[in-house]
Task: inverse folding
């Protein structure tokens, strides 16, 4: 049996798409988050993340963070009724 591999970059792309566009519950998104974070940490490629805005997630779904007039709301208002699985990861 031959060994098949894929790049960490491909996994980041796949995970970011799932976290942004998925219509499933947060349980699924948490699963892909955990898997990606493990891969990024073990390979030394973790470059951080950011929360997605309401205009970046499917309509009717909670954003990862709240903005108003292009400005991040003050803490803790920025995280009221948000979904912490709506994030985007970056490579180092």
Result:
């Amino acid at each position: 049996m031959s060994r098949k591999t894929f790049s960490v970059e491909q996994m980041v792309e796949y995970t970011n798409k799932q976290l942004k566009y998925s219509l499933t519950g947060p349980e699924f998104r948490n699963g892909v988050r955990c898997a990606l974070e493990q891969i990024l940490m073990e390979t030394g490629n973790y470059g951080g993340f950011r929360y997605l805005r309401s205009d970046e997630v499917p309509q009717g779904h909670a954003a990862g963070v709240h903005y108003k007039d292009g400005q991040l709301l003050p803490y803790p208002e920025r995280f009221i009724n948000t979904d912490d699985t709506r994030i985007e990861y970056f490579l180092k």
Observations:
- The mean pLDDT is 95.
- The chain has one domain: 8-91.
- Strands lie at 46-51, 67-68, 71-72, 87-91.
- The helical segments are 8-21, 26-43.
